[in-house]
Amino acid sequence: MCWTAKSFIRGLSFSVKYCSKDNHLQTICLYSKLKPKKCHILDWSGSTRNSTVPPGSSLPWRFFSCKQEGTEIPCKRKKIASITTPELLHKDLLKSEQKNWNEISGRYKAMAERIKKKIEELHNKYTLSSGSPRIKVGESVYFEENGCIFLSKADDVDEGKVHILLSAEDLGFYDAFIQRIRISPDQRYMATSLKSENSEEATCVVMKLGDFPVVEKVIPNVFSFEWVTNDVLYYTSQKNLKCQNVFMTTFTKQKHTELVYTEQDARFFVDIYCTKDRRFLTINSNSKTTSEVWLVDCRHPFKLPVLVQARTKGVIYHIEHRNDELYILTTYGEPAEYKLMKAPVGSSGMENWQLVYALEEKSKLIDLEMFSDHCILFLQNAGHLYLNVISFVSHSVHSIQLPVWACAFELESHPEHTTSTCYFQLTSPVHPPKRFAYSFKENNLIEQAVQEVPIITNCHTIRLLAKSKDETLVPITVFHNMNSKELHRKPLLVHVYGAYGIDLNMSFKEEKLLLIEEGWILAYCHVRGGGELGHSWHKDGCQHNKHKGLHDLKACIMLLHELGFSQPKYTALAAASAGGVLAGALCNSDPELIRAMVLQAPFVDVLNTMMKTHLPLTIEEQEEWGNPLVDEKCMKYIKSYCPYHNIKPQYYPSVFITAYENDQRIPLTGVLRYVQKLRKAALDHAGRTKKKGNWIPNIILDIQANGSHCDSSWEDSLNEVARQLAFLKKELEDV
């Protein structure tokens, strides 16, 4: 289950496409067999999870594909005189970049079309065959397909005997996808959230099930929701990217809605979920570094929430329940890494927390799932994934190393906490998801062969350690075609993120496999600021430690070149959202290490953004970047690495940036100004050197009218990826 302020994170990479900068939810990628859509993470169960987010952490708002507020302000012609100079500048820059893109996009069109066709072939071969996830509740099976929710009896699913419960289009949500589903315990009601690809807010539709399902209630601007009883629903409301209120609504004869909880601190985001045994609803209030949990007794849903432990600065914790005891995943105690503790329900204060399980040194807890007699921990150590099974009956721990090729996992939904088997999928950027099961009865791991997914056998996975400036060893994961010769002459695509304690997205992407098949090398640099080596790895790369992440990235690229993996003129750097900070910083400090850079919705103007408290995320992100408004040292430090503020006339690699007009997370104005300044600096340098054949980099901004920070349609995402890869191929393969 996910212990975090759950959310959308897994996406389809900088390609089909990194979903991002936090938003709390995690789920399973769905692809319609009727019409391919972008993978939207559908959350079925009461427990949400994220394989890339440290359990108990507060998810970041500038992650992978991100963006921040749509800054273009529409106005009527008669009010044109009231538009401020910055708004006019924004419009002028936007029009200028759109014109520039229209003039140069033709050079990539033919190659992009060929790439699209290849990606679609891989998608059909590896992804569509997996089908939609199914959730079994008693004798009923629920599943989503092409914007509809279906119900069938367990024995009738494969025979096609299904009933449609909901159609997004029939409800008037023509451009929406199904985000989250909750079935009431007695299966009389179903709550579903529908979200547009151009909006951050979702709408919750509650339906009364039966022979003829009917809409019972529509609740706008909802983030998370849970059934506490058969007819009592709790939900959180979202406004301006913030969730700070929890409401309760009833579906009894006397229907009513009331406010249950309000968070007063703007740094905190509120989310709710039920414990696995459905004994408690937990109200989780999280900042980037601190959390607090309140419990609602599901047997007495109208009683006031009870506090587990008052928030303590720097302590993150989340709650599960078993046999009248709370199981607490927390950073409390030394070392300040995640550990499993427990306390009686009636005495839940920190002074009563007892250690159940502590991680080995340098191990990272990725996820945890609680069952009636067991607890499964998914761990990472030295880049390898492990499964640790704690038995509450025998008081033993069984450890299993997962296949060496595995880089990421996805827990499947387990609505019954008494189940005897835990199902999950393993994957890597170049390996399609493969299903596994752990049997508590047999005490072993079983590889499932339910779908015939071709096995990738020609890709070699290597794990390296680069020595950073301060001697810290930084992990790198490398993939290359086993049949490739002269690796020093092959194109290399380096990936980086390094913020919010979030791991690099290592799930399967069709375009990554395409690059491997064409002889490219892929490298993932797990630099400080991310979460790959635990909570301390993040702390060692945030606020006044941001330069460490930059040093790590430089060391990783230099080691790759030293070991014969490509060379600077064949090397490109890829990043998205907050990953744009380190990528942009390296572009300023060591541009000679790379030939090209691809950024998706990048955060490149840290200082100006963090100076604007009217933006919805600035205050809560001060724990990641610092507060330059009150701390002059912080201001100077941010300025020392901020990509925008360190642009100067010098050699620069070619840069391709994808941004979104509807981005509510990364200000589009900052991206526009960054591109203009970078292009001018590159041209100034070329003009000053005046060498014969002097190379002038391509600085390209592709602004998308559709899509938002986290979501785009399958078609739009596919087009974006194809253009990005076409750019990279022209820059690296035509050298």
TrEMBL record:
Q: Where is the Peptidase S9 prolyl oligopeptidase catalytic domain?
A: 507-733
Q: Which Pfam families match?
A: Peptidase_S9, Peptidase_S9_N
- Which domain of life does the UniProt lineage start with? Eukaryota
Where in the cell? Cytoplasm, Cytosol
What terms describe the molecular function in GO for this protein? Answer: serine-type endopeptidase activity
Q: Which GO terms describe its biological process?
A: proteolysis
Tell me which GO cellular component terms the UniProt record holds: cytoskeleton; cytosol; Golgi apparatus
Give the EC number(s) under which this enzyme is classified.
Answer: 3.4.21.-
Keyword Cytoplasm assigned to the entry: answer is yes
Read off the SUPFAM superfamilies from this record: alpha/beta-Hydrolases, Peptidase/esterase 'gauge' domain
The Peptidase S9A N-terminal domain covers: 94-444
Q: Which UniProt keywords apply?
A: Cytoplasm, Hydrolase, Protease, Serine protease
What InterPro entries does this protein's entry cite? AB_hydrolase_fold, Pept_S9A_N, Peptidase_S9_cat, Peptidase_S9A, Serine_Peptidase_S9A
Asked if the keyword Methyltransferase belongs to this entry, the reply reads no
Function, in words: Serine peptidase whose precise substrate specificity remains unclear. Does not cleave peptides after a arginine or lysine residue. Regulates trans-Golgi network morphology and sorting by regulating the membrane binding of the AP-1 complex. May play a role in the regulation of synaptic vesicle exocytosis.
Q: Which family does it belong to?
A: Belongs to the peptidase S9A family.
Q: What is this protein called?
A: Prolyl endopeptidase
